[in-house]
Sequence to fold (292 residues):
Amino acid sequence: KGYRMKIFELSKMIKIIINFARYNLNSLFNIVAYPRYVVFYTTYRCNSHCKACNIWRGDDSEKIKDELTLNEIREIFSDSLFKKVINVNVQGGEATLREDLVDIVQVLIEELPSLKVIGLTSNGLDAKTVVSQAKKILKLCIKNDIEFNVGISVDGVGKYHDFARGKGAFKKASKTITELKKIKEKFPEFEVGTNCVVTANNVYNIEEIERWQKRVFGFNNISVVEFRDHFLNSPAIGDSLLFERNEKEKRMFIRWLTKKISEKPPYSLQYRYDQIKNMLSKNKNRIQSCQY
Fold:
């Protein structure tokens, strides 16, 4: 097991070096490269009333009218611009609210010749729908030799997640995670995980979040509000979550990053934490490519 882990970490380190070189050379010489990663917002409908986001507001019947049809999706992704895309992350709103989500994935598989990975990001509030959609997409991906992963967004443990996303949200997301992990037991190639967006609000609970992620998934996965423009659709609340507006919380998060780096985690994670720390504390430019 230790040998396999070393090989895995070595392969990740090699990818980091390659992406580092590609990203900085392209930036230096202003080379326009084909996109390799795509985040595809399939709908603006959402069944979560998140405090950091306004995407759920509005009339769903009107939003449905604005959603891309399968033919429109096919027309877009058949363009040669997308011929080197290897990874598509399907999001919303809440992507699983689209009844034709499996058909959308089928179109992506048919039109993207280099596709290797499909990810689905969900709030996990409706276990029945999320699990049903995930099973169908997994079957499709296995058939086409494509990796499939589901990430459930969890902003905190228990009360904080409920505060951020609505009453009972943590219990519902936990149920979905439990059901998805049962699928993984049968299909090891299926990946299920979580992502926590660290903000000036939940940074106080970050160690609790970290322990929960480690216990449930065996690893940690965080992103930072500063680097996610998606929150800007709710400027009145979203902007207040930024560390640049909250110096005390910013220092707290930087201390946590420093502590994590000193613990010598796997190199790829250590490198990521160091990048985030430098961008936040020293206002440095990004030098590592970001799949989003």
